[in-house]
Amino acid sequence: MKVLVVDDSRSDRKIIRYNFEWHGCHVLEASNGKQGLEQVLTESPDLIISDCLMPVMDGFQFLQELKKLDHLRSIPFVFYSAVYTGNKEAELAASLGALAFLEKPKRPDELWEEVGRILAAQSAGKGGAARELREEEFLKNYSNVVAGKLEERVRELSESNESLLRLNGELERRVVDRTAQLEAANRELEMFSYSVSHDLRAPLRHIDGFSQALIDEYTTRLNSTGRDYLDRIRKSSRRMMDMIDGILELSRHARWKIVKEKVDLSAMAREIGVMLARSHPDREVDFDVADGVVVRGDVRQLKVVLEHLLANAWKFTEQTEEARVEFYATQWDGRSACAVRDNGVGFNMAYAEKLFSPFQRLHSQEQFPGRGIGLAIVRRIVNRHGGKVRTDAEPGKGATFTFTL
């Protein structure tokens, strides 16, 4: 038996094809009614299984055109549809002469058995002959079916739209609530950090002060080991004080309100370079700043970013004979970016991410003094501007810090 399968879904056609070929049928395919009609004219199939909703020419129009051909109108025609499944559609199909109107999806064995029963009923003469529809009557019935389906889809879309609007409203309300909760939690955390850091300063000052008093007033009663212990206590308390100052500074930058305006980073970098040169008159550093690096951001916070990055570059080129520090504009993933580059000691990139965490250092305090908080502040400020920061470095060849805003 030669079977023509007409369906715009390639996967549905393949399922029917494999099913019927397994039962020994020769299967032809078409993706719409127009192609199906062309296949009928050249192949004269023994059975047509067609979808309803298809582009170019749908199943109803296909069957109507087929019935106009006297030598082909008797070919058994079965509708197999997942969209047009109502009574009006079934009545129109029957009035056009379709043997059956089957609803998708069916298991392959169910479809084969159903089609077999339909063909057996036709052979036994139980199907009855369809009354031929005039063109005007077909168009009227066809328009009613299409209009009814459109109304149904409009209702479904309207209900879906209302449901989406309700869900969006609920989602927006939840986002507002969660945002308010998160902001409140962040404020509490910042206040807690500030309070704890502030309250710790007094006892640390006492430790440092009384340790110094012991050294000044009782130094003759202490042996070298005792004096060494006191010296270690003082160094540790000062280190702790520096860390607390770093926490307070980090907290302060998180609370600052960002006021964006046009900022000339080139002029700002030159100003910072002059200050660094004045504070280290014994050093000669080739300080190169590109012209025209202008961005939008908070001028106070961006100055903090440049101060930390340029001061680090200045510090880590201290042991370099021909020290060089550069500030310039660049690109990062298609976005405008700024970069600070030096030819200092550099570092191993395997530990690069540690640098942006508070109090994480890759060099000893004795070699390069510092609090270990600067790059954490840089990342926080850049993130608050909607940007990101990265570093590229190599031991002995320097480092480059790039950031976007």
Helix and strand layout, with pairings?
Layout: E1 2-6, H1 10-22, E2 26-30, H2 33-43, E3 47-50, H3 59-66, E4 77-81, H4 87-96, E5 100-103, H5 108-123, H6 135-218, H7 224-255, E6 261-264, H8 265-279, E7 286-289, E8 294-297, H9 299-316, E9 324-332, E10 335-342, H10 374-384, E11 389-394, E12 398-403
Parallel strand pairs: 1-2, 1-3, 3-4, 4-5, 7-9
Antiparallel strand pairs: 6-8, 9-10, 10-12, 11-12
Keywords:
405 residues, alpha/beta, Rossmann fold, Helix Hairpins, Heat Shock Protein 90, 3 domains, 5-stranded parallel sheet, 5-stranded mixed sheet, 10 helices, 16% strand, elongated
How does this structure look, described?
This protein starts with a strand and ends with a strand. The chain is elongated and about 125 Å long. It has about 400 residues and is of the alpha/beta class. Helix 4 runs antiparallel to helix 6, helix 6 packs antiparallel against helix 7 and helix 8 packs across helix 9. The chain has helices spanning about 10-20, 35-45, 60-65, 85-95, 110-125, 135-220, 225-255, 265-280, 300-315, 375-385, and strands at about 1-5, 25-30, 45-50, 75-80, 100-105, 260-265, 285-290, 295, 325-330, 335-340, 390-395, 400-405. Strand 4 (about 75-80), helix 4 (about 85-95) and strand 5 form a beta-alpha-beta unit. It contains 10 helices and 12 strands. A 5-stranded parallel beta sheet has the order 2-1-3-4-5, with helices on both faces. Strands 7-9-10-12-11 form a 5-stranded mixed beta sheet. A two-stranded antiparallel ribbon has the order 6-8. The longest helix is centred in the middle third of the chain and has 84 residues, at about 135-220. Helices cover about 55% and strands about 15% of the residues. It folds into 3 domains: about 1-130, Rossmann fold (3-Layer(aba) Sandwich), CATH 3.40.50; about 135-255, Helix Hairpins (Orthogonal Bundle), CATH 1.10.287; about 260-405, Histidine kinase-like ATPase, C-terminal domain (Heat Shock Protein 90), CATH 3.30.565.
